[in-house]
Write a structure and sequence with these properties.
It contains 11 helices and 13 strands. By secondary structure, it is an alpha/beta fold. Helix 9 links the parallel strand 7 and strand 8 (298-304). It has helices at 8-18, 69-79, 99-108, 134-138, 143-154, 187-196, 205-223, 248-251, 278-292, 314-326, 359-369; strands at residues 42-45, 52-58, 85-91, 111-117, 160-164, 229-236, 260-266, 298-304, 333-340, 342-344, 350-352, 374-375, 380-383. The two termini are 30 Å apart. The strands form 3 sheets. An 8-stranded parallel barrel has the order 2-3-4-5-6-7-8-9. It has one domain (52-383): TIM Barrel (Alpha-Beta Barrel), CATH 3.20.20.80. The longest helix has 19 residues, at 205-223. Helix content is 31%, strand content 19%. The chain is globular and about 60 Å long.
Length: 388
């Protein structure tokens, strides 16, 4: 999911800093236990033992959910490879489970990745919480919607990915901890901090609110029997602001609430940003993800770079990125989803992250993804009902 904030220009500085720190009416509430039948036997997605799944988000429009089979087939032809994962937006303003889009992606032969965002139309960034605020999620206001969504999810016969409230460690989305108290602490916790100076593991107000909402959603979906959802804890590679309370670890809801760890890794997106090579954008964030859990697979839930039209070379950026990933620099990286989109910014400029923004970029991407390291079709095994 694109964001409208410069990240590249401070990521190297962040490395130095961080490494020193070790309208619709309201729905009626219902009891989630009224339909707790588990998912029927479903197909379990296999994590590749070698290589990683390749996937894409394919410019599905302002709501990021205009999925069409034609777009998927055209993208496959463009890159010369089938896609194992297809990402798309699933915003709470829609108030439904996107069964038709899920089935379309399944018919194409890919695993859906839903960016499930508690966000109201017109989906403007940098404006703070709306009617789908974390507080309203926690107090049960939207339980009926969550239950209906879960009932739809339960009917999907294979596992699929869900990234709930992604990039919460930034300031552009309304579910960010930035809007819920930031790094405030209770008086007792402030005394504890003054005594031991330990910045890790403290109950910062913003991240704690996010974790509580995240757990509420996951618990409710599971209570309805939708055990086929693969939950992705999806953060931005570098936090903004770069302060201890806003680190990815502060938002981590716990091992039992996460199946995959996800990162958004973008190079230059906007004209006023500095160009940053691929490796610094991933190396430290990858290490931080590995520290959250010793075993969970990691994905680039979003990655890409804009065409610079200057001395900067998008094709070389792709080549560097593919080389670093294929050469096993990140052995737990098991999936990547390229963000293929072009959009107009508020100042009238355009950000072109499409892989064919130039002939050299397309050539580099096609050559990189052609490597057999990149798995182009999902592999499933059948899991009996009731087994986790």
């Amino acid at each position: 999911m694109k964001n409208n904030l410069s990240l590249c220009c401070y990521c190297l500085l962040s490395l130095l800093i961080l490494t020193s720190l070790h309208a619709l009416p309201l729905p009626t509430k219902t009891d989630s236990k009224t339909s707790n039948t588990p998912s029927p036997s479903f197909a379990q997605l296999t994590v590749p033992s070698k290589g990683a799944y390749t996937g894409a988000y394919v410019d599905f429009g302002d709501g990021e959910d205009g999925v069409t089979l034609e777009a998927l087939e055209k993208f496959e032809q463009l890159v010369g490879k089938h896609q194992a994962i297809i990402g798309f937006g699933s915003f709470w303003a829609r108030q439904n489970f996107p069964t038709d889009k899920i089935n379309l992606i399944r018919s194409y032969g890919a695993v859906p990745l839903l960016y499930w965002s508690p966000w109201d139309a017109p989906f403007d960034q940098n404006r703070g919480p709306d009617r789908f605020s974390l507080d309203k999620i926690i107090d049960g206001t939207w339980d009926d919607y969550i239950d209906r969504w879960a009932d739809g999810a339960k009917a999907v016969p294979e596992q699929f990915f869900v990234s709930f409230g992604c990039e919460m460690n930034g300031t552009w989305f309304p579910w960010s901890g930035y809007f819920y108290g930031k790094g405030k602490l209770s008086p007792a916790e402030r005394k504890k901090l003054a005594a031991n100076k330990n910045l890790r593991g403290l109950p910062w107000a913003g991240p704690e609110k996010y974790k509580k909402a995240y757990r509420h959603v996951v618990d409710r979906v599971r209570a309805r029997g939708a055990t086929n959802v693969l939950w992705v804890f999806h953060v931005n590679n570098y936090s903004y602001p770069n302060t201890p309370w806003n680190l990815a670890a502060s938002y981590y809801p716990g091992t039992n609430y996460v199946d995959w760890l996800g990162l958004s890794v973008y190079g230059k997106q906007f004209a006023d940003e500095d160009w940053t090579s691929f490796k610094p954008l991933l190396e430290w964030p990858y290490e931080e993800m590995c520290k959250l859990d010793p075993n969970k697979p990691i994905m680039l839930a979003e990655w890409g770079v804009a065409e610079s039209h200057g001395k900067d070379d998008k094709g070389a950026w792709f080549t560097e990125g593919f080389s670093a990933m294929v050469n096993n620099n990140y052995p737990r990286l098991k999936a990547t989803i390229i963000w293929h989109e072009r959009w107009e910014n508020d100042d009238g400029t355009f950000s072109n992250l499409r892989i064919n923004s130039s002939s050299s970029a397309l050539k580099a991407y096609r050559e990189g993804v052609a490597n057999s390291f990149w798995v182009d079709k999902p592999v499933f095994t059948i899991r009996p009902t009731g087994r986790m």
